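Study both lines:
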Amino acid sequence: MGHTEHHEKSQGPVKCFVLTVSDTRTSADDHAGNFIRGALDGAGHEIVGSAIVKDDRRDIKKLLIEDLPHQSQAVIITGGTGISPRDRTVDAVRPLLEVEIPGFGELFRALSYEEIGAAAFLSRATAGVMLGRVIFCIPGSTTAVRLAMQKIILPEIAHAVWEATR
């Protein structure tokens, strides 16, 4: 089955959960999370929930293991993907993934390089599958979120969910 046939079989809407990981953001100033929700809604996907948690491994794992709505098909996590001592999103998520999707991070960094240059290598953006859900971990800057959503996630989210659950 070719790429076109896959896309024809993998139509949305996808039921999505949006998670902002930050020690400082609140619902009033969660610009990245707001952008993600707006982009998903604008593309016809369903937001089944969202949350903001501190950049703490236990908090992130607890939400992903215990608190996600059961109908979630995809989780988009923004924040905590850098290399600072407080950036722990990837460290919390990776051990939970049954399948890692390395091409997501590779493509994100390649596209980021076109926009910001060599600093793109500092991102640990990643994706994978956990319990039949596609998990995307992207940086917290609105510019990075816009890039990931418009160039990678929105064009492929339904296809990724279909592949992860077929």
